[in-house]
Amino acid sequence: MEPTKNCLKDLSVFSLLNGDEIQSICKNGYLKEYRRGEIIFFENDSEKKLYLLVDGQVKLSMLSSEGREKVMTILQGGDIFGEISLFDHDPHPLTAEVLEKARLMILDWNDLEEIIMKQPRLALKIIEALSKKTRLLTSQVRDLVFHDAKGRLANLLIRFANDFGQKVEEGTMIEIILTHQEIANLLGVSRVTVTKTLNKLIDEEIIKIKERKIYILDDEKLNELVKDI
Fold it and tell me: What are the transmembrane regions (predicted)?
């Protein structure tokens, strides 16, 4: 299969892009593969590029001055990132790390400007990506203000079920495997708190864990936990 057809097939995951926009991206961008654990860019790096995640999983996080990690979100195929630092002179506010072998389409800023001039709708896709992250940050602030650890975990599981969920006989299986420490970094709580809270949800038959994957058994009870206090 010729390179352009390969590229079009790869980028079909970006359902919001039309054929002309994908053609422009294929012409000006380049595909790159990353292994699990590789860093795509670090917090405070100043490279201005737009990243389109074709497949795999990427974690966006930040570090405190004491070296504590706060995970902001986990991206999957079809997500766009790197857009936060495109339109100003500030460096990346987050670190992007590969959680699961990933393929990315990468566009340099100079090429992206040219594409946007020819395909203005692409700018709307970037704005949509920014809006998605703004909503995520708003949700995280809401969790910190209104919810205890149990409510925060419930909200995270609901989000993961929507983004990574697969319907099975028992309920919804979350197709992503995270350690208790990684979940703690997402929630801003301790690993011990995550372990205790997961065990409570298991005892209440809201979830179960099998082969390290989380299954949601009772959607209604889980949603009850995220109601505002």
Answer: none
Q: Would the pLDDT of 94 be above 70?
A: yes
Amino acid identity of 47?
E
For the chain, what percentages of helix, strand and coil (3-state, to nearest 5) are there?
45, 30, 30
Q: Are 143 and 153 in contact (CB under 8 A)?
A: no
Gap between the Cα atoms of 196 and 136, Å rounded: 25
Residue type, 223: N
Q: Locate tokens 């995640």: which residue?
A: 53
Residue for token digits 């983004």? Answer: 163
Query: Residue 224 and residue 207: Cα distance in Å, rounded?
Result: 14
Whether 222 contacts 216, CB under 8 Å? yes
Q: What is the C-alpha R_g of the chain?
A: 19
pLDDT tens profile 168-218: 998 999 988 889 999 998 898 899 999 999 999 999 999 999 988 999 999
Model pTM above 0.90: no
Question: What would the pLDDT profile of 127-159 be if each residue is shown by its tens digit?
Answer: 887 788 788 777 777 777 678 899 999 999 999
User: Which residues have C-beta within 8 Å of that of residue 204, sequence separation ≥ 6?
Assistant: 221
Residue 159 and residue 112 in contact, taking contact as beta carbons nearer than 8 Å: no
149: CB partners within 8 A, 6+ apart: 187, 189, 193, 194, 197
At 101, the amino acid letter reads K
Handedness of CA 16, 73, 25, 128 (dihedral sign): positive
